[in-house]
Amino acid sequence: MKELIEMIVKPLVDFPEDVQVKVLEDENRVTYQLSVNKTDMGKVIGKQGRVAKAIRTVVYAAGSSQQKKIFLEISE
């Protein structure tokens, strides 16, 4: 899943080397923390959050087979 997020985000940004995904796993949830360069935040979020919503939709669909709830957080 981490590789999927990186594969989606890196072509969108100007600084792909700054894209990092951290995984936090609990009993019943997995949280992926996506961090990008400060100047790339607008590109990852998109107008009215459309790009971020699309990324989350793909990630949630890919993880739907798991028993745990999946969350994607975007930060600088």
Automatic annotation (TrEMBL):
Subunit structure: Forms a complex with KhpB.
Keyword Cytoplasm attributed: yes
Species: Cytobacillus solani
Function according to Swiss-Prot or TrEMBL: A probable RNA chaperone. Forms a complex with KhpB which binds to cellular RNA and controls its expression. Plays a role in peptidoglycan (PG) homeostasis and cell length regulation.
Signal peptide: none
Protein's recorded name: RNA-binding protein KhpA
InterPro entries per UniProt: KH_dom-like_a/b (IPR015946), KH_sf_prok-type (IPR009019), KhpA (IPR020627)
GO biological process, one term: regulation of cell shape
Any one GO MF annotation of this record: RNA binding
Location of this chain's protein in the cell: Cytoplasm
Pfam families: KH_KhpA-B
Entry-linked PROSITE patterns: KH_TYPE_1
Family in the record: Belongs to the KhpA RNA-binding protein family.
Superkingdom of origin: Bacteria
Gene name in the database record: khpA
CC terms in the record's Gene Ontology section: cytoplasm
